[in-house]
Amino acid sequence: MALSTQITWLFILAIPIACIAWTVTHEEVFREPREYCLKRSTEGRTIAVRKFFYLFTCEYCFSHYITAIMLIITGFQLLYTDWRGYLIAGFALVFVANVYMNLFALIRVDLKKVRMEAENEEKKN
């Protein structure tokens, strides 16, 4: 695969990874399971239990697992056509997906700020 095609795949595959990781770790639809996992991650008896449940509450951690699944599904490799290609692709996808999630978080904060300012302006009038 040409390098330009690989880069295109990198930026496109990172989108569903970011979407899934963000949705599971932040959105209301998964609030109850996330709260359960958060509780288990702090009150678990063993470190293995605590770490296992923590991964469902951290978008960075969870994105590694989603990336692994996406690599299995797609067979995407970056730069090399052996195990090194999977390794490089995995870390690159996690990086790009987390850039997307951080940008999304910044946009959400900015939108929330604008909404609050509009509500305050309405209350004044």
Alpha carbon gyration radius = 18 Å
Percent of sequence in beta strands: under 5%
Fraction of residues in H or I helices: over 70%
Count of strand segments: 0
Unreliable stretches (pLDDT < 50, length at least 5) are: none
- Strand-pairing-aware structural class: mainly alpha
Let me know the largest β-sheet: none
Structural commentary:
This protein has 5 helices and no strands. By secondary structure, the protein is an all-alpha fold. It has one domain. The longest helix is centred in the C-terminal third of the chain and has 42 residues, at 83-124. The N and C termini lie far apart (60 Å).
Sum up the structure in keywords.
mainly alpha; 125 residues; single chain; 0% strand
What's the SSE blueprint?
Elements: H1 3-26, H2 31-43, H3 47-54, H4 59-74, H5 83-124
Helix pairs in contact: 1-4, 1-5, 2-3, 4-5
In short:
With 125 residues, the chain is mainly alpha-helical. Helices cover 82% and strands 0% of the residues. The longest helix is centred in the last third of the chain and has 42 residues, at 83-124.
